[in-house]
Design brief:
The structure holds 3 protein chains of 3 kinds. By secondary structure, chain A is α+β, with helices and mostly antiparallel strands. In chain A, about 40% of the residues lie in helices and about 20% in strands. In chain A, helix 3 (about 55-65) crosses helix 4 (about 75-80) and helix 5 packs across helix 7 (about 190-210). In chain C, strands 1-2 form a two-stranded parallel ribbon. Classes of the chains: A alpha+beta, B alpha/beta, C alpha+beta.
Chain lengths: ~425, ~500, ~60
């Protein structure tokens, strides 16, 4: 016999206890469990090549070129059709990726470890804005940048992190996140403060461990020019914390929310690692000039892990600036967060919101509450162009589709009744 | 050209749908716009209005948008409709509003001292929410109809076991300490307590009391089915007991349609022994002999008259007699009036007002059809096509599934009224205008707009009752004036209007 | 709360459904809050099973 309430408390406590730290960097196929020389990981639930949307196809194409398996986009597409590459969700390998979320064997990744459970998670280094692989771009500029990231960015960061870890133990991501929330970030669509704090922490160690000033300068310039640099380690922090919850018999807490540009998928603590999927939402967001609703690709990315963790759209009340950017008012930002309390198990002990009297963020999405109240989670996300490589077309609040939650609830009653 | 489109799986409340339709109709080229949840009843209404609904694949949780416009405008108008739904144009420029809780729990965290949940959700969801409210120690006013008998019994039994009351289903009016919930009129507070199985019945009695200077402390609704034997009068008995125990109440009143025999016995016994003066009003019954502590009435105005007599320490019988004399005068006036056509059509927004009016009309006219007729076998096959003498209650379930009650949105009744006024066989059109909180802002003007410019050479005789008090938001005097200016005969109670209308129709049927 | 309390100190209303009822109460300064209600995602059968699993307790 089990008690849903007790099970959920257990799951919630495990999530709260996690202490994610950056401990190192590595090359994907060398450090990510189960990753072979022909594996390509992607965001969201499992998906075949034929069903991939534009941005993801573009990112996969770019990855093939980056790996040197083909030297033109045309040849890359042929390569994909002929060879039997193994596509798998990042989530199946303790990893997460924003937007297309493609991780190929030769890509450098952050290694994040949870001091509480000992588990690890992985995420790539964020390329920046504009024409980038994660939006499906794959031209020369993109490939060259990826190479630079492997050849220059990766070794400089690795040396610096090693130096940092020697002196301080891992880089405490939970601490950076909770500070950033007090500085106007919500950690999904707005990471400027977190990125600034991160750079501030790391720079002295980068300088001390540097052997080449020119490269060091380029690395610092690169990070400083990318407001979203912290997103990837932030996502890895969320991933390892939620992985730490593990399987909890009878719990209805949502442990994964992810999208692959075609489908939306969730996992529940009391239903092991089963995916429950449905069509991904079509973001109805504020569009950048020159784009129309017809240009928008379906929701994509593992970054929904931030809301699953209790930040991102759930912490919008901490980030009034971003809501203006997407067409709302500061009161709207507060209202979104308050709505999310109605579907969560509890309030976060570490992540608090100044404008709500430092109330903890809504944390631990409860499947049953979602199904009973009709309120599905909201995300605060970017929207990609449906054609590969055209980049981002807008940003805003997107509501997750309901069918995946209904099928998960049905499976829950089948299993436990 | 009439075209429609289905919007799947989006929930919109009826007021939003009505307001969007209103906004669309302002656009040039739009002859008609209608937005409805795709219930069977609504599909039937749309079909009758000329929209092609056969073969439309939609469930009651889906929305249908129907527009009558030139073909090439349709797609653009549909786009506009959708944008109105997501960004209501009538809300423009408002201050950003405080957070509105999405659940009962959320509401309780905002107002922990709440003592009643007023539930007007669609019937198929209402019972579950009502049970949640009861489980959290809240009383329930269940405005929703289309709640099953089983659900009603389960809710009321739970409430009874836990010291709570469920008022409803289909309860539109409740008054607590002089404050109205749902539909209510601005009335004084006084030493009267009322238990009512009917919304507009309660409103009419309160209005008639107010006109005579008497006030009401509590008016507790029970829903129309409470006094049937299946429910056994659970809420009625709880309510009577509570009013009887209130030291500020000196007269207890029970209003409704005639209860089942066993329930009647229980009610009457409780009233007899409650230690206070009491008055029953079971409409349509034959009159019974008054008892020292219990007076029997069969009409709403009569009930108010008797209550006032009791409050003033006067003789109830005499008060009744005086009232009957006034009625006789009105009847005489009615018989003398001139009009063309043969039949009476009673077109009502208030259910009990319709019921009372029909009971009165039955004393004068041989056969009366309706959508909820008093006599078995007189149900109209199609409520949208009345025949001969007919009384239609536009607040009945068939018209309120996924559609607003006509007291809130009188446009449907108005359209039907216009249609029937054109029918040369219709001699008299009798209708109600219900004012007060919750009701439409200017119902008289809507009716008057419809009856002006009739194509029929000689229109019917229009007879109306305006149920309201001078404190109501719609301004009673003005509502009456608007009708009178348009040639409508306006009377001071539902009964009087019905007597006049029926008397005016007598003998015409055979012409 | 009980019925006695309602008749003594009430009404203090939670409105679920038509907004106009709430607006009217607020205009008369009756304590009230409204719920911006959404229908459940599941059908009655599934909701019933979920309620059973919770042991009839509210979530």
């Amino acid at each position: 016999m089990f008690d849903i309430e007790k099970a959920n408390q257990t799951a919630f406590e495990r999530l709260q206890k996690a202490e994610p730290h950056i401990v190192d960097l590595g090359i994907a196929c060398e450090v990510i469990p189960g990753m072979e020389k022909n594996t390509i990981l992607h965001a969201g639930p499992p998906i075949d090549l034929e069903r991939m949307s534009g941005p993801m196809m573009g990112a996969v194409t770019g990855a093939v070129i980056y790996e040197g398996w083909a030297d033109t986009p045309q040849k890359a597409i042929e390569y994909l059709k002929e060879k039997n590459l193994a596509f798998d969700p990042c989530h199946h390998h303790s990893a997460v990726g924003p937007m297309a979320g493609i991780i190929s064997p030769g890509m450098p990744v952050w290694i994040v470890e949870d001091g509480s459970s000992g588990k690890r998670s992985y995420a790539t280094l964020n390329e920046g804005l504009g024409k980038v692989l994660r939006m499906g771009a794959f031209d020369q500029e993109v490939i060259e940048r990826l190479h630079w990231m492997r050849e220059v960015l990766f070794p400089v960061l690795k040396a610096g992190v090693e130096r940092y870890v020697e002196e301080n133990g891992g880089i405490n991501l939970k601490s950076l996140i909770s500070q950033a929330l007090h500085m106007g970030d919500e950690l999904h669509n707005r990471n400027r403060a977190a990125t600034s704090l991160f750079i501030r922490s790391l720079v002295p160690y980068l300088v001390e461990s540097s052997t080449d000033n020119t490269s060091l300068a380029k690395v610092i310039r690169f990070m400083a020019g990318n407001d979203h640099f912290f997103l990837n380690p932030g996502m890895a922090a969320a991933k390892v914390s939620l992985d730490g919850v593990g399987s909890v018999e009878g719990s209805t807490m949502v442990t994964v929310m992810a999208r692959n540009g075609t489908d939306f998928g969730i996992q529940i603590a009391g239903l092991e690692r089963r995916w429950f999927t449905c069509q991904a939402a079509l973001p109805d967001v504020l569009l950048f000039p020159g784009f129309t609703r017809a240009d928008v690709n379906r929701d994509i990315g593992d970054s929904a892990i931030m809301e699953t963790y209790g930040v991102g759209g759930f912490a919008l009340a901490a980030a009034p600036a971003i809501v203006q950017f997407v067409g709302g008012t500061p009161q709207d930002a507060i209202n979104y967060t308050r709505e999310m309390y109605e579907i969560c198990l509890g309030e976060n002990r570490n992540f608090t919101i100044p404008s709500l009297n430092f109330r903890g963020t809504p944390t631990g999405i409860d499947l049953i509450k979602v199904v009973e109240t009709g309120i599905t989670p909201i995300l605060d996300t970017g929207a990609a162009h449906r054609e590969a490589g055209r980049g981002q077309v807008g940003a805003g609040i997107v509501r997750m589709p309901s069918e995946a939650f209904v099928s998960a609830a049905t499976a829950f009653t089948d299993r436990y009744l | 050209m009439k075209r429609l489109e289905v919007v799947k799986g989006e929930y919109y409340d009826s007021v939003t749908l009505m307001l969007v339709a209103k906004e669309l109709k302002k656009i040039e080229g739009v002859a008609e716009a209608t937005l409805n949840m795709a219930t069977e009843a609504n599909l039937h209404i749309m079909k009758t209005a000329g929209f092609e609904v056969d073969g439309v694949n939609a469930s009651p949780d889906d929305l249908i948008i129907g527009i009558d416009c030139p073909g090439e405008l349709f797609d653009g108008l549909m786009e506009t409709a959708r944008s109105y739904l997501s960004s209501p144009p009538w809300k423009g420029g408002e201050e950003p509003s405080e957070y509105t809780p999405r659940t009962l729990e959320g509401a309780l965290s905002v107002l922990p001292e709440a003592d009643i949940a007023l539930i007007s959700l669609p019937g198929r969801y209402a019972a579950a929410e009502a049970m949640k409210a009861l489980e959290r120690g809240l009383n329930v006013m269940l405005y929703s109809d289309n709640v099953s008998l089983e659900e009603e019994i389960e809710l009321k039994r739970y409430a009874s076991r836990n010291g709570l009351i469920v008022m409803g289903p289909d309860c539109g009016t409740v008054v607590i300490n002089g404050e109205g919930l749902g539909f209510s009129n601005a009335c004084p507070v006084g030493p009267v307590g009322i238990v009512s199985a009917s919304g507009t019945g309660l409103q009419e009695v309160m209005v008639q009391l107010a006109r005579r200077g008497a006030g009401v402390k509590h008016g507790l609704g029970t829903g129309g089915r409470d006094v049937k034997s299946a429910v056994g009068g659970i809420s009625s008995l709880i309510a009577i007991e509570a009013l009887a125990n209130d030291p500020e109440i000196s007269v207890v009143v029970v209003i409704g349609k005639p209860p089942s025999t066993e329930v009647r016995e229980k009610l009457v016994q409780t009233l007899r022994s409650c230690g206070k003066q009491s008055v029953t009003c079971f409409m349509g019954e034959s009159p019974r002999k008054d008892e020292p502590q219990l007076k029997y009435t069969t009409g709403l105005e009569e009930c108010a008259t008797v209550v006032v007599a009791l409050l003033d320490g006067k003789d109830a019988g005499k008060a009744r007699e005086d009232l009957m004399n006034e009625y006789l005068k009105i009847e005489a006036l009615g018989r003398k009036s001139e009009t063309s056509g043969r039949f009476l059509r009673g077109l009502f927004t208030g259910g009990t007002l319709c019921y009372e009016a029909e009971s009165i009309a039955r004393r004068y006219l041989e056969s009366i059809y309706g959508n909820n007729p008093l006599k078995i076998g007189m149900k109209l096959p199609d409520s949208l096509k009345p025949i001969q003498n007919s009384f239609i209650d536009y607040g009945e379930d068939e018209f309120t599934q996924g559609k607003l009650h006509p007291m809130i949105d009188p446009s449907f009744r108005t359209g039907q009224l216009k249609m029937q006024s054109e029918d040369p066989s219709v001699a008299v059109v009798l209708f109600d205008v219900v004012l007060g909180y919750g009701s439409a802002p200017d119902p008289s003007s809507e009716v008057v707009g419809a009856i002006k410019g009739l194509e029929r050479k000689r229109g019917p005789l229009y007879v109306a009752y305006v149920c309201g008090t001078s404190g109501d938001p719609q301004c009673l005097e003005r509502q009456i004036a608007v009708l009178k200016e348009a040639g409508v005969r306006v009377f001071e109670s539902n009964a009087r209007a019905a007597i006049f209308a029926a008397a005016a129709t007598v003998g015409r049927e055979r012409r | 709360m009980s019925m006695k309390k309602l008749l003594k100190d009430g009404p203090k209303v939670i409105n679920m459904g038509m907004e106009q009822f709430y607006i009217d109460l607020k205009a008369r300064e009756v304590p009230a809050v409204r719920v911006d209600w959404k229908p459940p995602l599941a059908d009655r059968e599934l909701l019933g099973k979920l309620k059973k699993l919770r042991g009839g307790n509210f979530v």
